[in-house]
Amino acid sequence: MENTLPPIPAKRYFTIGEVGDLCGVKPHVLRYWEQEFTQLRPMKRRGNRRYYQHHEVLMIRRIRDLLYDQGFTISGARNKMQELLQSERDKKRNGEVMLEGMEVVELDAEDLDGMESILPGDTLDDTSVPLVQLRRELFEIRELLAFAD
Fold first, then answer.
1. E strands, the chain, where?
2. How many domains does the chain divide into?
3. What would the mean pLDDT of 84-88 be, rounded to a whole number?
4. Are 49 and 86 in a shared domain?
5. What pLDDT digit, counting tens, does each position of 16-60 carry?
6. Is the pLDDT of residue 71 over 90?
């Protein structure tokens, strides 16, 4: 089976046929997966027509990878999806941002010393809250919240 899937277009909603083409899965399989994976809930409109959003297309690709490429059973893939979603929730709760396809750079208070501008060539004046101080305080709050759990 071909491992490369087409890129997902910048659309708000996708029909079941479009999702099938984007994910390499037939529509009847998608309907079955909706029963097995409770996280997968496309919006239904006139005549029970399904409309999937971008995050659901990504979820279907993840499910497909677990089942077809990694060899999980339906039950195993369901458990793995629950683990992955719980892990993402924990990361969001701890202040970590999930940015797919982008490298996230962690800065600490020492890295912020000497930063004097918001944008290149844009300096802060005396009347505004210094961005460096604000960032430092946010990092301190995040650390305090991490210890509170």
1. 14-15, 43-45, 49-52, 117-119, 122-123
2. 2
3. 85
4. yes
5. 999 999 999 999 999 999 999 998 999 999 888 999 999 999 999
6. yes
Q: Are 25 and 6 in contact (CB under 8 A)?
A: no
> Residue 64's CB: how many other CB atoms inside 10 A?
20
Q: Which residue has the higher pLDDT, 126 or 118?
A: 126
How many residues are recorded in the chain? 149
List of residues 6+ apart from 36 with CB closer than 8 A: 74, 78
**Tokens 């970590």 -> residue:** 96
Whether 61 is covered by a domain: the verdict is: yes
* Element containing residue 32 per DSSP (H, E): helix 27-36
- Would you state the structure tokens that stand for residue 65, as one six-digit string? 């990878």
Q: How far apart are CA 144 and CA 149, in angstroms?
A: 9
Q: Are 63 and 40 in contact (CB under 8 A)?
A: yes
Cβ contact 15:49 at 8 Å:
yes
Residue whose token pair is 């509170």: 148
